[in-house]
Predict the 3D structure of the following.
Amino acid sequence: MTDSLPTGGLETDALQLPGWTHVYSGKVRDLYVPADEAITEKIGQECVLVVASDRISAYDHVLSSEIPDKGRVLTQLSLWWFDQLDVEHHVLASTVDGGVPAAVEGRAMICKKLDMFPVECIARGYLTGSGLAEYKASGTVCDIPLPEGLVDGSRLEEALFTPSAKAEVGEHDENITYDDVVAMVGDDIAARLSELTLKIYTRAEEIARERGIILADTKVEFGIDAATGVITLGDEVLTPDSSRFWDASTYAPGQSQPSYDKQYVRDWLTSAESGWDKSSDTPPPALPADVVERTRARYVEAYEKLTGRTFA
């Protein structure tokens, strides 16, 4: 989170939490800062409360329908991953005893105040999505040349750092080159962001594969810890909202792979049943109950397969 908190967020019905002031809402998360010095003194440093909602977005729209327990799944999975990674991260507390309000325990984290870099740090181990589209057009991903003959789902010889520039809520992130990152943050920081991103991906890919899941790609974000000056992992990490997870047992290059995310939502919105034109300015319709339930089940399945825990 930043010294100058983000602006231009969504208008939401964010909870009023005693001791905290709501300052921003993104597509999924609501941000709060301490309303008085007592909280800051208890935590021991400047902090921000990050609360994951059950909101879901698709095609740059936040839907009117919510996915029950999605905020808890994202938060609990992120917390689990933070424990697996040997990387400095932003979480200070995640329980009531640590200062999290009881009303949002399980889906909230008290985090270090970070000055975030304006870069979405993406690691790709497999070719798909926007990377595949660029490859078909030019044989590259973020201007990195790739071998001929790759198809949707091809595993890359080595994972790539393929950054994008952050966009405002409702806009598309834009793929950029490594040189663009250097121009934005300097040589040393660009090199460190690439190193940390690929380190996280490599470790997470190994862990996921042991559990029968392929981590195709992931997005992480970093900032400078305002208290220490250390580059620190922020936001969420390795969730179905920030990563592309595939079932290893059904993986087959040359076709679109079923993923542990909001694919049910995307598929329904683009179906004849929904009647919605994603190229229009019309908001998406509400989701049918069965799409909501299947999407919830997919998020929970990802959590349980990765962590080995039962989601309560």
Remarks:
- DSSP finds seven helices and 17 strands in the chain.
- The longest strand covers residues 213-225.
- The CA atoms of residues 81 and 237 lie 7 Å apart.
- The two ends are 29 Å apart (CA to CA).
